[in-house]
Amino acid sequence: MKIKKLLNLFFIATSRALLCVALVPFSNSVFAQANYPTKPIRFVVGFAAGGSTDMISRILGKRMSELLGQPITTENKPGADSMIASEFVAKADPDGSTILITSGSHTINPAIYPNLKLDPIKDFSPVSLIVDGPQFLIVNPAVPIHSIEELIAFAKKNPGSLNYATSASTTFLQMALFQSMAGISMTSIPYKGAAPAVASVLANETQIAITGIINSISQVKANKVRVLAVTSEKRFPMFPDIPTVTEKSVPGYVASVWYGMFAPAKTPAKVIATLSSTLHQVLREPDIEAQLLNLGVYIVTNTPEAFIEFLQKDLDKWARVANLSGTK
Asked: Which of 78, 213, 195, 75 is nearest to 135 (CA)?
C-alpha cells in the first residue's frame, strides 16, 4: 500500500514538473509579446545606402528606437529589385526583431517576375503604409519638349526616336503605364540604380526618365534637367507650379511610389500593434514630417487591415499594366 502511494506521489510530481517544462517556451513567448521589444531591432532595406528607402528607414529608426527603448539599425541588402531583402525578412523569426522597409517594388515585382515564389502579402505581416513619393518625369534640356502635351505629340510624330531610362521594375512599369495611356511608344534603357539613370538623361544618352524627387532635385534646381510633370494625383507641396501628369493630357495617370513596413508572417498581433502605433506616433511629429517632406515624400499611414487591402489593389493594378505592356 505504501509503495502504491509512493508511486502515485512520484507520478503527480513528475507530471507537474513536465508540465512546467512544457509551459516555459509558451510563457517566454507570451512574456516577449507583452514586453516587446526585448532585444535590438533591424530595419532591412532592399536598396543601397543613401537612397530614399534607406533614408526613410534611418529617420524612422532613430526616433522609434528612442520610444521603444531598443537599438534600431538599418541593414542594407540591395539587389534583385529588392527581392533579396524581402526574402531575408520573410524567412526571419516572427518576433518583431527583423522588419522590412520597402517601396512599391514589393507589389510590382510579381508582375515583372511571374515565377516569383514570394507572396508579397501572405509571406508577411503588413504593418502600415509610411509615405507616398511622387515621381518627376524629367527630360534633357536639349530635347525640344516642355510639357506632357509636347512629349506625346513628339513621340507620335517621331516614333522610336526617344529613349527613356529605367532604374528598377517600378520605373519600368510606371513608364509602361504612361505609354499605354498616352498611346505612344518609346525605347527602355535599363540602369542599375536611380543615380546612373538620371546621369544618362544629363548626358543625353537617354532623353526621358521617371525618377524620385530626391534622386533628381539637385539637378532640377541647377536647371540640368527639365521637369515636365509629377506623377502623383495632386501637385506636390514643395513644387506647386509643376503640373501632374493626370491634369495634362493623360487623365487618371497616377504612379507615385509608396513606402511601407512589413514583419515576417505569423508575427504576433500584439507586436504588429506596437510597431504600428509607435510608427504612427513618430509620423505625427512635425520634425519627422519635415524631414520626410525634404526627401520628396508625404505621410500616408493606415491600419494593417487597410494596408492589406491597398496591397491587393496595387498587385492587381500592376499585373494589368504588365499584361498590357507585354512584360509577362
From this structure: 213
